[in-house]
Known about the structure:
Blueprint: H1 18-26, H2 29-33, H3 36-70, H4 76-121, H5 125-130, H6 133-174, H7 178-185, H8 187-225, H9 227-232, H10 236-288, H11 294-335, E1 357-364, E2 375-382, E3 387-391, H12 398-405, E4 413-418, E5 421-422, H13 428-432, E6 435-438, H14 449-453, H15 462-471, H16 475-479, H17 498-512, E7 516-520, H18 528-541, E8 546-550, H19 554-558, E9 562-567, E10 570-575, H20 577-581, H21 586-594
Parallel strand pairs: 3-8, 3-9, 6-7, 7-8
Antiparallel strand pairs: 1-2, 1-4, 4-5, 9-10
Amino acid sequence: MDRRSDKDSRPMTAGPNGGRDINALTSFLPFVLRQKGLAATALVSLLVASAGYMGTLRYLSDVVDVGIIAEKGRDLPAHFLILGTALTITAAGTGVRHYSVAQLGERVATDIRTAVHATLLEADIPFFETNRPSDLVSRMTTDLSLVQVVLTSTISVIIQNAILLTGAVAILIATGSWRLLLTEIALVPLIVLLLMAQGKKVRRLSRQTQDSLATLGSVADQTFEAIQIVRAFTAEAIEKARFADAAKESLRSAGRLARSRGMMNAMLIFLIFGTLFGVLWQAANDVLAGRMTTGQLLTFAGASAVVAVALASLSDVAGELQRAAGGAARLKELMTIRPAPARPARPCRRPAVPGTIAFEGVSFRYPSRPDDLALDQVSFLVEPRSSVAIVGPSGSGKSTLLKLLLRFYDQDGGRILLGGEDHREVDPAALRSLISYVPQDCFLFADTVGANIAYGAPGAGPKAVREAARAAGAADFIEKLPDGYETRVGEKGARLSGGQRQRISIARALLRDAPILLLDEATSSLDSESEQDVQRGLNAIRETRTTIVIAHRLSTILSSDTIVVLDNGRVMATGRHDDLMRQDGLYRDLTRLQFISHPLPA
């Protein structure tokens, strides 16, 4: 199965409009202008280096015609001292320019990367469901590198070569060789036409290359993340072949881009230097005919070479611009993502807590599955400081309820009220500050045990962290780790067992000390004894919190004040365990199927 063909996992791609791609590049210029000091230093040093270079070139004719021929070398040391001074100025300016541009590039890249990351953190959850993390990382690294080079080094190259080109043309005019100058100027329209003809193709191939690299990274990322599944199913050969196929496609895309750029550059070099050789041949004949001095020929040859090199450099820069334009468009897409759910224009006051949580006729479809109704007219109440258990078959909408309460999504119909306030009228950050959440997949960051527990409460001290771990039944195993609370857990907590990760996740939620506690299968990876330890800790704090728990274990359900039974997105029944067991309904069936080993009421 080709996982890359999954429509929902395709990365966003830039549009086909080349003009918009170029505009995307210019949209990042404000990041350069923020670094006024470095940008000014780079510009001044560039001007100084260019002036020194052009001064050297212009003075060459005087050295030959005056210093060597007219003066017979009498003041030759003075002439070469002037040349040496100009050369020193050029070298110093060039060194400062390279340093300033390098520093400017790193700072601009850091600012853009930080801005993109901040924007992504505000994006809605569906965005991350339809865009691969590896593709987003590719945009923040590979695409950003292209944009960084263009915004700093390439811009400096453009300015420098534009100055050199202007200065060289001025020198050519000063020599009085209008006929030769017009021959060189006639070359410019040909270069422009060639760049226009090839530019669109280069942009398109560049976007394809960037997309193929993102796909390659995604294949590797999925394989490494699922390495245990790969090993368990002896699928190493399959994954090697899949990566090799993606690598070959990336190579083919890069090859097509290289051929296109190579062909364009070859044609440009032929045009530029072919014209240069023709002009120099005419200039040599002018010297033989007495229409030009030897010094003028030397200066003319140098200026013509500068024109040729500047045009060649600018044409190569044009190729870099075309390549970076695709990356800039992909990067700009991330910069323009709107945060969702949207913050209300006039957010209401923070809901009174503790307060009643009410689901009133809530209906919802996932954006990625618009034909499937996940919740259908769901209504129930959660009283302050009470505990409600949500039970039902897999896929009945249990976890969806918690995601809506957290505003990971907004419901399509109905209302969710907190303390009488519609939760969509509350600022999302203020809303979530009221909630501690333990999801099904207990994600841990590649940090220490203590840092993971304190993630939701950065100001918590070591004592508070230990108390939360003790309440979650995690203290015993943590203290047995090599470095205790300073033990690093590895990528996604890979160095810990599933049960250990779950207990740390529970401790993290408890330390947050929010008035609402959401537990989504929070003890599913624990054995019975460990679950009892955790339940004792949870029971001790339930009197001060409103708790909504999704569970399949009878021990968890029995301790709840109310049970809500869901099936196919609908509320089938509500009540306490004993009341529901007396009914011949879904809850009784689920209980007998899943908890047969537990004693049930008669």
